[in-house]
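Workshop exercise sheet. Pairs work together: one partner reads the sequence aloud, the other fills in the structure field after running the prediction. Swap roles for the next sheet.
Pair: D.N. / O.F.
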Amino acid sequence: MSTRPQDAEGRPAPAEALPLSAIHHVEIWSGNAKQSEYFYRKAFGFSRIAYAGPETGIRDRASYVLAQDEIRLVITSPIGEGGKINRWLSEHGDGVRDMAFATGDVDLCHREAVARGAKDQGAPVDLGDGVRRATVATYGEVLHSFIDAKDFTGAFLPGYEASEIPEEDVGLRYVDHIVGNVEEGQMDAWRDWYERVLGWHQFLSFDDKDISTDFTALRSKVMSSPTGKIKFPINEPAAGKKKSQIQEYLDFNGGAGSQHLALLTDDIIKTIGQLRDRGVEFLEVPDSYYEVLTERVGAIDEDIEVLRKLKILVDRDDQGYLLQLFTKPVQDRPTLFYEIIQRKGSQSFGKGNFQALFESIEREQERRGNL
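Structure field:
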């Protein structure tokens, strides 16, 4: 029986939080990293800053590091046949492999995480130049690495060489949150995992009364680090008349995984305009959404007609409002996609937009024959 104190619901309260300061990087495994890297540069305005591969002594893979403000994406492909990455890609397709955290104490994080029930995927190891790393597993085949590189002055991490291709950025600043999809009935178990293992707390929750249409529904619980710097919503499908977007993801991903990354901007109108000009495809929003927008969210700074033209969604809570828009999947499998978000006080996740968002997603599912 757990000896942890209980919260108001009678469940064990979150454990003492691990000292995780930020998302260090997100690694995406891709069938063709060279082409994916080009796509992220030209479509999303990321600059290449580093590379690791055969030329740097890495024999089984090639990895390109992309940066925009505080965001770091690592795009990795296998070189040759067989091996873990090829098997992973065959089952899941392009997607998130590692959501890595920055910390000042890798050994403590790894030791405590494993002691609290996390599956060990790599004991602490020195990478050189004072950098240390360890890894545990989370839902599906996604990993969490703990990285201490605070004193490292190289391009990214040891083993990578500087490889600079600058691009004009589109104003993306940092990863606001990362959403995970898990199988029906598993959301609470993973909520408990993040409380028990990382010491996070439940920030928000939504059920199928909040997030549903006539056909599909989902449930979601948002997990947050104590500072609120890192937030991971966890979704599971709920029963509906037809297949939900979460179940479609699970079917095509071969199980649980990271559904989307939300990237924050300080000027979503400028960012979305540039992304559309660069060829990024977004979900469609009907004009009728904007006819009642001010009635629903009240006065906002932005021109409604500009938002209508760019199809940007708006929602308000008691702290302010947010603006958001979602891309279509960025690969042929209907799995990983991106959210662009701007916060003007609101710390929520756009609950008021769920109806319009779901209907837009359902239209895309129907076109794919998966609704």
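Discussion prompt: The radius of gyration is 20 Å. What would you look at next?
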